[in-house]
Amino acid sequence: MKHWIKRTLFGFAGAAMVAGSIAGCAGQRHGWGGDSADFRAKMVERVGSKLELDANQKQKLTVLAEKLQAQREAMRGAGGSGDPRSQFKALFAGNKLDQAGATRLVEEKTTAVRNGSPEIIAAAADFYDNLNAAQQQKVRDFMERGGRRWSHRG
Questions:
Q1: What angle do CA 15, 18, 13 make, to 5 degrees?
Q2: End-to-end CA distance of the chain
Q3: Would the pTM of this model clear 0.70, i.e. be above it?
């Protein structure tokens, strides 16, 4: 495989892992009482300090975090009113599986992913491509650990 293809794939994978980490943290607040903007800002600061990001890189990470939050809201349904668990459980409420409802639910989620993915990929690429080699290595190390917590040393 050509070097630039490998590098591009690793870049997207790294950005996706960082993005997934931020989105995962945003989804599991563990008692966080503030709004999502405050939480997102704290996560950007935390990741920013671990990667030693400059102001421009933090701005790119903020854009990525905002795109991920918008995607998360789109996946939940129009205006965040749909609870995914309730929607899924409703498919099994009757004597038979609501196949038409299941199809609609899958189509809705697929459309949300399809529509939001280009912006997320572009934001992830913009963020990752603007990291220096040492920062990119930290992202790859983080991915190697399976996306588990950042170590105390970096």
A1: 35
A2: 31
A3: no
